[in-house]
Amino acid sequence: MAKAKKISTDQRLGCESLLGCIFQSWSPRRRKPSLPEKDHKAKDYLPPKSTTITNPKIIPRKSTDSFAQTKRQDPQKTKPDEINARKSSDSARKSSESARKSLSSASPRTESKRFSPNGVMGNIIVKPQPAVKSPDVSQTRSRWEGKTVNYRHDPETLKRMGNEEYCRGRFGEALVFYERAILADPKTPTYWSNKSAALISLGRLLEASDACEEALRLNPNYERAHQRLASLQLRLGEVEKALCHYNQAGKYTETKHIEQVEDVIKCLRRCNEARRSKEWNVVLKETCFVISYGADSSPRVYALQTEALLHLQRQEEAYDVYRKATKRLDIDSFIKIFGLSITSYILMVGSQVYIAAGRFEDAVTASRQASRLDPSNEEVKAVARKARAVAAARLTGNLLFNASKFEAACVVYTEGLEQDPCNALLLCNRAASRFKLGQFEKAVEDSTLALNLQPSYRKARRRRADSYAKLEKWQHAIQDYELLMMETPEDEETRRVLADANVRFKGAGSDLVVVN
């Protein structure tokens, strides 16, 4: 019989610790159930911050660490102080775990799905996302940008896609979708009305008006189209038509719309009265009121303003205003919307603008078109005669000037000025003829008149500067040369004559400093 071994105190304590760990690890209360339980303790388990769990159904066991430590260590080499320290740490871990379970079980189930301050939701650690600023809708990219769009969708889908682009501020793309919807179903007025809205946003008001009229042709009781066409007619200056459509727009018409149209009608009436009495300052003021009241795209209103500026000898402003009025000049569309008489008036004013700007061929063409549309209008006939006269005077005078027949050229330019006394180009050409004839004082007079009409007329300023130099009026000559140098600093010829004028002026005893 073998002798019984004497077990030391250290070995006995080690075995008790090992058995306790095994019992705690394999206790039925600690084992993971094979089926999900009714309670939600496992769901509310909060792992430590150092642990990242991707599967919330797998719960790690906490007691395996102490078991692994005990298994690795030799019981004979373990000291009592280390065992006591391990026991105290195990007890502290158990107490913290029980406290966490009590907190999670005390809260209702819905609270476990909320984000906690440390970014934990359930068993998944969620990193807090930074606040993202909502982008500007007009700056966002389209869903179909860079993609091949199937335009064989049903028209309602195409309309919906167009509406999405319109809301993003991408009116060109929206217009494409609306046009595709119209190709698929041209008898639905909504598609035409939406197309009109996109065209209005693109500034193509005449085409928008045509689309609105087509929508009303398909459905005369379409109130939204009536309201849209009324606002278009107001912007185009057709106030009587705008008032008619507002009366048929039903719930879309407000009192302020009617009042706005009535204000424009009153201003246009005062404009016509002032034009008949040739009160051009009043015409200019009333047209500004009309534009501020909503008729901001009316070719007729801009033509009235242009005519007033021409009679007030503000030719450069008149030219700019007329260009704004006829930015998209289409005579057929103008006739359809505004009628023959108003279109003829717009072309007649354009002929006057072209005469003042020295574009005589364009002036003759515009006057012929105006005469063709309104052949019985005496005012149109007079403008056509003037356009032909000044064009012929400029052409004949230039031929004589190039042939060095300066006196004859001067006579021809004077005949042209009898037809249009405020023509800056003919005045400048006559100044050049008089300069060649040695009539420097008269050349200065003609150049000054031309500059009063068109302050940025470079040729007239150079003629006057040269004439002042010939008259040895160096101070006036230097002022004109310096203005020319400010406009074109790279002009070497002007720089040379300016330096020469400064030298001569200093030689006359002046202390004028050259401005570079």
CATH topology of the domain at 151-250: Serine Threonine Protein Phosphatase 5, Tetratricopeptide repeat
For the largest sheet, list the strands in their spatial order: 1-2
| Beta fraction | under 5%
Q: State the major sheet.
A: 2 strands, antiparallel
- For the secondary structure, the number of strands is 2
Q: With helices defined by DSSP (H or I, 4 residues minimum), what is the helix count? A: 23
Shape: elongated
Assign the structural class, choosing from mainly alpha, mainly beta, alpha/beta, alpha+beta, or little secondary structure: mainly alpha
- End-to-end gap: 127 Å
Helicity level, as a percent range?
A: 55-70%
Low-confidence stretches: 1-6, 25-85, 101-129, 131-140, 510-516
Whole-number average pLDDT? 77
Q: What's the gyration radius in Å?
A: 46 Å
Describe the structure.
Residues 34-46, 71-100 have a biased composition (Basic and acidic residues). Residues 26-143 are annotated as: Disordered. Keywords: TPR repeat. The structure is a single chain. This protein has a domain at 151-250: Tetratricopeptide repeat domain (Serine Threonine Protein Phosphatase 5, Tetratricopeptide repeat). The chain has 23 helices and two strands. Helix 12 packs antiparallel against helix 13. The chain is elongated and about 85 Å long. Strands 1-2 form a two-stranded antiparallel sheet. It is an all-alpha fold.
Key phrases:
65% helix, disordered N terminus, 516 residues, Serine Threonine Protein Phosphatase 5, Tetratricopeptide repeat, mainly alpha, 23 helices
